[in-house]
Amino acid sequence: MSQKSNFVFILKYLSKISLILVVLVSCKNSSKEINDFLADKNLPVGVSENVNLVRKDSGIIVSRMITPLYWDYTNKKLNPYYEFPKGVKIVTINRLSRDSVTVTGDYAISYANTAISEIIGHVVVVNHENGVVLNTDQMYWDQKEDYYFTEQPFTIYTEKDTMNGVGFESESNLNNWILNNTKGDFIVDQKEE
């Protein structure tokens, strides 16, 4: 490259930098005004890609959340939320550093004020400790109560049984089920008295 072309390249580069600096310096909007503008236009206040979030309790990892795309709508005044438009995978980890329960779905939304999340599309919940698997197309997760529920059709698999129904509730570790409109083959242990 000749000296003249190098000089032209540097001038173009410097002019772009100065234009960006002029735009940044001329902005006098407060962060509240920017958040209000984004909320009015239904735009997220933050966007992240390829998120791998680790949550700890007393220095010990208790869960991981993995998502290809995360939108932060906490700028909404009445009902702030987080959206995961390309799906989510949430893994809870027990004290022995093993995966305890894994939840996956094609789409999720989590409401900040209520700590209720809705997971939609090919929802699969797996309890790795007892081998129970739940499949449904839509599920709610009450994070405060550590509770799952759905009014949609579901299939639950155990080591011995496969059950289908419409309407399911359980603790978030897939224990203590409440099954509605259930059908399937069940193995029942009967004790003679």
Automatic annotation (TrEMBL):
This is LPS export ABC transporter protein LptC. InterPro entries: LipoPS_assembly_LptC-rel (IPR010664), LptC (IPR026265). GO terms for cellular component: plasma membrane. Pfam families: LptC. It comes from the Bacteria. GO terms for molecular function: lipopolysaccharide transmembrane transporter activity.
